[in-house]
Amino acid sequence: MRTLVAYTMSLALGLGVWAVSVPVAQAGPGDIVFEREKAVGVDPAVFPHWIHRIRYTCSVCHPALFQMKRGEDPVTMKSIAAGEHCGKCHNGRVAFPISLTTCVRCHYIPAD
Amino acid sequence: MKLILARTRRVLGAWRLTRLRSGSLRLVALASALLFVACESRTRYLVLSRLVDGMPSYEEWLESSPPKPLRRYAPRKTREALAPAPVMPTPEPARNEIEQAKAKDEAFAMLPKDDSGAVDWVAALREGVISPRTAIEGGGEPLEQMPIDVEIGAEDPATSAIFPHPAHTQIILCDSCHPEPFQMAAGSTEMSMDAMYEGRLCGQCHGTVAFGLESCGRCHPNMR
Q1: Which residues on chain B are in Cβ contact (under 8 Å) with A51?
Q2: What is the ipTM of this complex?
Q3: Is the pTM of this model over 0.80?
């Protein structure tokens, strides 16, 4: 009986871990996975280039908002909340805002 | 005077009655106090700053999301108000079918491909599969195209390449490529395929966000 309970619990735990770590989107050409300065418990942010270039020309973001070379712009949640970088559009008016219900739309582990 | 005293006594008596004598009442009071504390903005900030990295300071955060004033009476909730708010705002109508695609595979199935199987974004634009906006809001005006094709000569003419300015300038501005990594005068930047494989020059975009170096014929017309 005790082992049965233990098995069920570990299965539930495993399923739970799998559910939160399962990638929600596939990787595309030119995707950028943001590297962090320090490790935190949230998945890294992924910028899917393709979904943006379907809707906008390069010139909308480059080089005014983002320099061409990756890693040159210090993108932080603070800067986004202040309406810079991604926050220029991701403010709830042009595109989805940053909020506790939209975290996983950017923070996920892309599938290969 | 007597009247005032009597009234004060009555009020005090009522106050005494509400004192939290029984255990269940105390529990309810504790729960409501906890709920009140959890809704308090500083507590919310503490929890949020644990979950989200790079939160602004408390004062800045408070300014950007001012606490809602307490309402004495909750407004009547209509069916519309109870429906979940749409996450994706649609300030502008979709311009193409592809903008309504729900998944990456669905979108990529609509995009034209070149001989190597890479997405041909230039063809997508030409065929009207995509009609990208040139401004964050309002759609923007089409970009002014630079008409000159630049021939990048090689010792062996079979390997010379063509750089088409028009295909690039319809989506990207001059200052993204000039003067870094390409100097303005033709021939002044030394080009090599090695540099591109290292992710420099054309390789900064081609191989990442644009078609890769395996699509030879798209730059080297004699290698088609």
Answers
A1: 104, 107
A2: 0.73
A3: no
